[in-house]
Amino acid sequence: MSDPTAHALVVAAVITGAVAGAAIVGTVVTTWLTLRHQRKAEDKRHQHERHMRLLESGLKAAVDFLAAAGRTSRGRQVLDTANRSLDNAKSSASDQVYEQFRSKQQEAQESAFTATADAENAYAAIRMLIPSVTSQARRYLDLCIQADAHPDSGKDERQRTRQGVEGTIRRALGGDLPDNWMFAEPVPESHRPRWFKILLAVAAGLALAGAGWYLGRYGFALP
Asked: Is residue 70 one of the residues assigned to a domain?
């Protein structure tokens, strides 16, 4: 180890190994932080997608319920009219006229029952997806079921209740996501670090560090 040139080479090898080791540590730490950030971004994106699916389902349930409730009130009014017409036809001397009104009454009854069943199913969906509107929606559906054709005394209350239901739905769906929510884009595959590259860098650094240690201890003498 008396040769100055050999000593300088040993020192250079040791320094190179140390620098390589430091680079390896930095690469590993940076890669771990990058992967950790990417996992958080993926989790956030999946959470956002779940929120959007729930919002879409809630909006569809709300639209279906309001439409079904509207059909229920109209069906009940048509049934009320058909019942009144059938009652008036009972005094008619013509059996043919009475049968015509009875047939219309049966059709109106079937349509009203179908609309009510659809509304009940829609209410069950909105109760699960938008719990905050449950009581108002139940009240509105009951008013629609009780609707009559004349004088339609519950019309004003029915409209007010519907407006309340719509307002509650808008607040529930609009407040489901925070104002500062940002969509996290998925990391492209080409930008994701490859672990085999990291392993190669680690192996190369260890080889350089081992070479530096060997030269520092034994010089250029072969074992």
From this structure: yes
User: Which pair of tokens denotes residue 215?
Assistant: 């030269």
The per-residue pLDDT for 220 is: 47
Tens digit of pLDDT for each residue in 122-146?
999 999 999 999 999 999 999 999 9
* Residue 115 CB burial class (10 angstroms; 0-12, 13-18, ≥19): buried
Instruction: Reply yes or no: is the peptide bond before residue 186 cis, omega within 30 of 0.
Output: no
Q: What's the distance, CA 204 to chain centroid? A: 46
Cβ-Cβ contacts under 8 Å for 74 (sequence gap 6 or more): 115, 147
Q: Omega into 188 within 30° of 0, i.e. cis? A: no
In a domain? residue 77: yes
Residue 67: inside a domain, yes or no? Answer: yes
- Domain interval for residue 114: 4-178+195-218
For residue 153, which phi and psi values (nearest 5 degrees)? -65, -20
| Range 36-39, long-range pairs (CB < 8 A, 24+ positions) | 38/187, 38/192
Q: List CB contacts of 43: < 8 A, sequence separation 6 or more.
A: none
| Residue ranges for the chain with pLDDT beneath 70 | 1-22, 93, 175-223
Separation between Cα atoms, residue 121 and residue 65, nearest integer Å: 8
Q: Does residue 185 lie within any of the structural domains?
A: no
Predicted structure pTM score: 0.62
Provide the domain count of the chain: 1
